[in-house]
Amino acid sequence: MLVNKIRVRLLVVLAAVACCNLLVPSAAACDRNKLAMLSNRTSNTQPAHNTAPPSKILAGSGLSKPGMVGLWSVTDYVDGQPFASYFDTWNADGNEFFIDNENPADDNVCQGTWVQTNINSYKLKHVSFTFDDSGNQNGTAVFHDVVTVSADGNSFTGTENVYLYDLGGNLVAQYIGDQLQATRIKVDF
Predict the structure, then answer these.
(1) Which residues are CB-neighbours of 25 under 8 A, at least 6 positions away?
(2) Which run of H or E residues covers position 6?
């Protein structure tokens, strides 16, 4: 009897999770258009020198000013030229969510996770799936951002490296050194 109740509860939970997954936009191709644009760039397929995981939040250090939490308007520059722009939300729980300026039909919603590494410096790891022109998954993309918030907390600058992997986890391309510039979006009316 108890086993049947546990099975029923497990099935209810699994069904709820499955239903929720239908409602949540997939990060699967959130950077599809950016990745397509990246494929037109010259790729450096050498592995990155520093592949160590980001450090953890500096516990107990009181590192909260100027702060990363909030809504940002970000522009990504490649070779000094604007490449992409997006609204980026950094949440206090270490999660990040953004919507870029691409057509929503092209899946322009993504998410990642971040840590504070210094008094005003942060690392973001953003992941997505990649697809071929027929819509078949052909790998994953991993974005590594390192940003520094200004002293007044109203802007940040940083760099972004993009690593593309095939379905076997092999690095197939990387794009190093995009420049990021952002301004905080505030309630100012």
Answers:
(1) 107, 109
(2) helix 2-23
Give φ, ψ of 92 to 5 degrees: -65, -20
The secondary structure of the chain in percent helix, strand, coil, rounded to multiples of 5, reads 15, 45, 40
Domains of the chain in start order, with CATH, are: 28-185 (2.40.128.120)
Confidence of residue 42 (pLDDT cuts 50, 70, 90): low
Give the contacts of 63 (CB within 8 A, at least 6 positions apart): 57, 116, 118, 119
Residues near 164 by beta carbon (within 8 Å), at least 6 away in sequence = 35, 38, 130, 139, 140, 141, 171, 172, 173, 174
Task: Give the pTM.
Answer: 0.68
